[in-house]
Amino acid sequence: MALSLAPNPVGVADQNIVQKYIEELKAKWATETIDPTIPWWKFWKQAKITHQATLFMLQSLDYLILQLDKVIMDGKDKKATVLAILSELFDTVIAPTLPTWSKPFVNSIKNYVIYTLLSNMIDLVVEKYHNLIWPEPVLTPVKIKAKAKPKSTRKK
Predict the structure, then answer these.
(1) pLDDT average, residue stretch 38-51
(2) Using CA atoms, how far apart are residues 94 and 83, in angstroms rounded to an integer?
């Protein structure tokens, strides 16, 4: 499967379904999240929240693909509905966790993440589900060479 920088064509989102799943996922996020309003000077804690938000978005993507496959028949409409839900969820989950310096770019970041990255991810996941091709990932371990200890110049 070739990935592109532009999303594949999508249909029309079913707004009733969008609202139903948005409410469900926002409620789930509210119960599972740690406080996203960390003061700016505790920047080291921001990474934990961003990681949690990203993981929640990816799990939501997987959940929505499986759920909407049973509800909506047309593939393009399914994709449009998933993208509409994730787009609204981005504003609740990801946007508040972004660092302060990136706030002016939040709409550009959102468009890229939703309509390029996640759009292509939907195509990949759906293809894998429909073809039942989930091979074991082939990862080669990264070997890190230990640094040699510097020789002591001290006289014994």
Answers:
(1) 68
(2) 15
C-alpha neighbours within 13 Å on the C-beta side of residue 102 = 12
pTM, rounded to two decimals: 0.70
Residues in Cβ contact with 60 at an 8 Å cutoff, skipping those fewer than 6 apart: 25, 85, 86, 89
Alpha helices in 12-74 (DSSP H): 15-32, 46-71
**How far apart are alpha carbons 81 and 13 in whole angstroms?**
4
Residue whose pair of structure tokens reads 């921001």 in the numeric block? 46
∠ at Cα 47 (41, 52), nearest 5°?
A: 130
- Among 10, 123, 9, 18, smallest CA distance to 77 is for 10
Q: Rounded to the nearest 10 degrees, how much is the dihedral formed by the CA atoms of 39, 44, 50, 55?
A: -140
C-alpha 3: how far from chain center: 17
Helices then strands, each counted (H, E), the chain: 5, 0
Where do we find the tokens 């509210």?
A: 30
- Interior/surface letters 85-96, b for 16+ CB within 10 angstroms, e for the rest: bbbbbbebbbbe
For residue range 68-117, list pLDDT tens digits in order: 888 877 777 888 899 999 999 999 888 888 877 888 999 999 999 998 89
